[in-house]
Specification:
The termini are far apart. It contains 19 helices and 17 strands. It is globular, with a radius of gyration of 28 Å. It has two domains: 160 residues, Periplasmic binding protein-like II (D-Maltodextrin-Binding Protein, domain 2, 3-Layer(aba) Sandwich); 224 residues, Periplasmic binding protein-like II (D-Maltodextrin-Binding Protein, domain 2). It is of the alpha/beta class and 464 residues long.
């Protein structure tokens, strides 16, 4: 009898030790593996870890077995460090890519799978509650949902053909958390002193205000610039500005294969009717001393520095310039208005997009977990915490109305629905340099406009 009782006690003891560790539904190997910790690394630029604290904490509340190591890198070191890390097999699981870099990074990106297999710890049972591990296959964001949820420019830069099981299909390669747009910063004190109650809303009004605001010295040199506008190398994001002017003028920036076509004259048309030529002449006239709108000189400082120092009335920039201006010149009385347009018709508005895309490394050992976090971070419920902390305009249609109430971001947000971009090659820096040099050569008299456009197009196509 004692032997029987001892056997019963021994069996009960073994049961109490082993069964709770079996997991749910018999505790198969896959379910037990779901309990193992997962460590993800995430590399980004500009935004510190504090901007992601709420997002990461919310994700870990659902998946406490997942830890995320966030690293912010300087922009000027980011690409070199990223590529070197991947070459040495120590790259991050998740990383950011600028929209104009995506094509060059596709070999390093693992596309979003059709579903992700994730584990959850749940409390189950009626009489006896116990913690069990449940493994689920969850569908990921579809192409249709991507188009419905994000602003129009996003699918152009995140959807690419991918070979999956011998079939080439369009796949999502990343998701943005924000989309920035180019806007007009203006010095309120300079406009007020000139009796101008409102900044320009059209390029025609912009010309008129530049003429009124520019002041010259006895030698005919610019003593007070109206706009940091007209040259290439000393104007912040001049390649974006001239690109937008071309797009607003109706230029065909690329063909169906993505090759640059902005300098090509349509059959039967004259070069003088080329929209990009007209846009380039308009822009460079502001740095031409023989023109009435002359207001900017190649010898002037960088446009950002000039505006922050109160040396010019107008500056074209993005929302990320705002905190930099406030930090540099806290007493500067400035505001932001929408980018000037050719027409006041809302249906013809064209703005310029600039954004970063969050994606997953092809070399990660945790594809499902990494993609699940990227999707999680991009959802309205969670991305809003990041947008608020970082001060960024949204990429989601559903957040546009909410952010229109934000005093600092409303202008940029209002433009995201009409924002476009065009370059999608393998060397955005070289392309931007080509556009800047084109503008410099025209202003310096090194090249005629038509010739400079042709050279720039050729150089851009060499980067595709």
């Amino acid at each position: 009898m004692r032997r029987f009782n001892l056997a019963i006690i021994t069996l009960m003891t073994v049961s109490l030790v082993v069964l709770p560790g079996l997991g749910c539904r018999g505790g198969n190997k896959e379910e037990r593996a779901g309990l193992q910790p997962v460590e993800l690394t995430y590399w980004r630029v500009f935004d510190g870890s504090d901007t992601f604290t709420k997002v990461i904490d919310s994700y870990r509340a659902r998946h406490p077995n997942v830890s995320i190591n966030y690293r912010k890198l300087r922009f000027d070191e980011y690409q070199d460090e990223l590529l070197q890390a991947f070459a040495e097999d120590r790259g991050p699981d998740m990383f950011s890519v600028h929209n104009t870099w995506m094509k060059g990074y596709l070999p390093l990106i693992e596309p979003l799978p059709d579903s992700v297999r994730l584990s959850y710890t749940e409390i189950q049972g009626t009489l006896k509650k116990e913690s069990v591990v449940v493994v689920r296959n969850e569908p990921t964001l579809s192409l249709r949902s991507l188009t419905d949820q994000f602003v129009s420019v996003v699918p152009e830069y995140v959807v690419y053909p991918s070979d999956s099981e011998g079939a080439v299909t369009n796949r999502i390669h990343g998701l943005p958390l924000s989309v920035d747009t180019l806007a007009l910063f203006y010095n309120k004190d300079i406009l007020d002193a000139a009796g101008l109650p409102q900044p320009p809303s059209t390029w025609e009004q912009f010309q008129e205000q530049v003429v009124e605001l520019t002041k010259y010295d006895a030698n005919g040199d610019v003593a007070q610039s109206a706009a940091a506008f007209g040259y290439g190398s000393n104007v912040e994001r001049s390649s974006d500005i001239i690109s937008l002017l071309m797009m607003q003028s109706g230029a065909t920036m690329t063909d169906s294969r993505g090759s640059a076509r902005f300098a090509e004259v349509p059959s039967g048309a004259s070069q003088q009717s080329l929209p990009s030529l007209e846009a380039t002449r308009f822009y460079t006239d502001f740095a031409n001393p023989s023109k009435e709108v002359y207001t900017w000189d190649p010898s002037f400082p960088n446009s950002f520095d000039a505006f922050a120092a109160g040396q010019t009335a107008f500056f074209f920039g993005y929302s990320y310039h705002m905190p930099s201006i406030k930090a540099r010149s806290p007493k500067l009385n400035f505001a932001v208005s929408p980018m000037p347009q050719i027409s006041t018709d809302p249906r013809s508005q064209i703005n310029f997009a600039n954004f970063w895309i969050e994606t997953v490394s092809k070399k990660t050992e945790n594809v499902d977990w990494a993609w699940d976090f990227v999707q999680f971070a991009a959802k309205e419920k969670y991305v809003s915490a990041f947008l608020e902390e970082a001060g960024r305009p949204t990429a989601l249609r559903s957040v546009v109305l909410e952010q229109r109430e934000d005093f600092d971001l409303s202008v940029f947000v209002d433009q995201v629905l009409s924002a476009q971009a065009w370059y999608n090659g393998e060397d955005a820096t070289a392309s931007e340099n080509a556009m800047e040099k084109m503008l410099d050569d025209i202003v310096d008299g090194t090249s005629e406009i038509g010739e400079a456009l042709g050279i720039a197009q050729q150089q851009v196509n060499q980067t595709l």
